[in-house]
Amino acid sequence: MKRITRGEKIFQVFLVVFMVLACIAFIYPVLNIFAISFSGNFPIMRGEVTFYPKDFTTIGYKGVLENTRIYRAYANTIFVSAVGCVLGLAMTGIAAYPMAFGNFYGKKFYSVFVVVTLWFQAGLIPSYLVIQKLGLLDNLWALIFNALCGAYNVIVLRSFFASIPESVIESARIDGANDLIIFYRFVVPMSKAAFATIALWIVVGHWNDFFAPLMYLRKMENFTLQIVLRDIVITSNMASYELGGAEGASAIPQQVQNAVIVVSMVPMLVLYPFLQRYFVKGVMLGSVKG
């Protein structure tokens, strides 16, 4: 059994201390947000709320859950995330498959072209003009098409496909399977970890996207959750969402702001544990073979 040197012990202690401090730095703001969202007005104004609520109340969540515009923003975000995830996985898989298994003229150029887009992108104005010409301004589909197929996701999925034994693909071709059958019957089932990882990236990307909705959406009924968060938390635009109340009117915005943040975090906190077991495997296998 290999003995651990003094330097390795010191490094392990340093690593443990660093990770504990990092966890505290990440967890404390989240706990503080939860605590403020359930706290009363006066402890919030005096700055007494830390890890746990004081003068427990649900008035902040009452203001959020009774507001139909926040429900609409929630529904819009779920629609964009769900539809964007399904279409994004389909387009990413279709783009990555020929890069891994295709045998056609220009394959190398196609692969290089995809990689180049990671560093050289069209920019803001061309993207806006494309969405405008498609007639998708102030439409939720603009958010979906704007992030339909990411080059990085294609590269990761292509690398994962390359780890599939070539004998499996050749056997399927000998049995008469075409590329469509090979993709859906063989490649997709063998790449669940990679698809789950990319699905998580796509959903989180759509859920947290703020700039695209800000740029493409104008009508309040089309706003996503991040735009509503901006209005409530940063600009304190409470009147537009009919939030607040007579009791402790100056402190209620603090409760509502943190309640909205909590409500927006819950879906991602619930989703991540189910996909976590695929996440590390998908990233590691997708990065081993290029």
Structural commentary:
The chain has 290 residues and is mainly alpha-helical. It folds into 2 domains: 1-57; 67-288, Orthogonal Bundle (MetI-like fold), CATH 1.10.3720. It contains 14 helices and no strands.
Q: How many individual β-strands?
A: 0
Provide the CATH top-level class of the largest domain. Mainly Alpha
The proportion of strand residues reads: under 5%
Task: Extract low-pLDDT stretches.
Answer: 246-252
Write the layout of secondary structure elements.
Blueprint (H helix, E strand, L loop, with lengths): L5 H32 L3 H6 L12 H7 L2 H34 L5 H10 L7 H10 L6 H7 L4 H12 L3 H9 L4 H12 L1 H17 L2 H6 L8 H10 L17 H37 L2
Helix pairs in contact: 1-14, 3-14, 4-7, 4-8, 4-11, 4-13, 8-14, 9-10, 11-14, 13-14
List keywords for this structure.
290 residues; mainly alpha; MetI-like fold; 2 domains; 14 helices; 72% helix
Gist of the model:
It is built from 14 helices and no strands. By secondary structure, it is mainly α.
